[in-house]
Amino acid sequence: MTRVWITAGSVKMPADFSDSKTAKGILEALPLEAPAQVWGEEVYITTSLALSEEKPQAHVPPGIIAYWLPGKAICFFFGQAPASPVTIVGELRGNPHDLAAVKQGDLVRIELAPEDEQIAGLAGNAAADECDAEGGCDCSDDA
User: Fold this and answer.
1) What is the number of domains present in the chain?
2) pTM higher than 0.70 for the full model?
3) pLDDT of the chain, 143 residues: tens digit per residue
4) SS3 annotation, 63-117
5) Can you name the residues that pair with 66 across neighbouring β-strands?
6) How far is Cα 83 from Cα 81, in angstroms, rounded to an integer?
7) Do the domain assignments include residue 38?
8) CATH (domain of 8)
């Protein structure tokens, strides 16, 4: 797992990215900045990253961070279901509903957390647990 910081408008929170190939592709491109796009209860940014899909999921719980291949987008879910299947790359470590304060066009920045904030695992990953209970998401290292 790799800890990052997400800043979106006035909202700032930590997040943990998995060790999947797709997540690593995003991490290698950090820092990333782009204007926020808002769709229902989802904030996303479009990127130039052409990454592969890994176990795409049609349903994700609030707090999940995912990559959406058709739009080359990084998505932050706080209630909205994906428009189409997404590849889970991580999880927000704050209240995902705080993202409701983000407005269309607000600057979103994703950056690596300092070394002393890096962690080794997703213990207590409530969103992943909920996802697994629904028979869906696989947030494991080989996701």
Assistant:
1) 1
2) yes
3) 999 999 999 999 999 999 999 999 999 999 999 999 999 999 999 999 999 999 999 999 999 999 999 999 999 999 988 999 999 999 999 999 999 999 999 999 999 999 888 865 444 444 444 444 344 444 444 43
4) CEEEEEHHHCEEEEECCCCCCCCEEEEEEECCCHHHHHHCCCCCEEEEEECCHHH
5) 75, 88
6) 7
7) yes
8) 2.40.100.20
- In the chain, the amino acid numbered 31 is P
Residue indicated by tokens 């999940």? 64
**Paired tokens of 101:** 């304060």
91 contacts 16 by C-beta, under 8 angstroms: yes
The whole-angstrom separation of Cα 36 and Cα 2 is: 23
Q: Burial, 142: exposed, middle or buried (Cβ in 10 Å; 0-12, 13-18, 19+)? A: exposed
Expressed as residue numbers, the domain containing 105 is 2-114
Query: What order do you get walking across the sheet with 2-8 strand by strand?
Result: 32-35, 107-112, 2-8, 11-17, 87-92, 64-68, 73-77, 42-46, 37-38
Instruction: Sort strands 37-38 and 42-46 into parallel, antiparallel or unpaired.
Output: antiparallel
* CA atoms in the 13 A half-sphere facing the CB of 17: 24
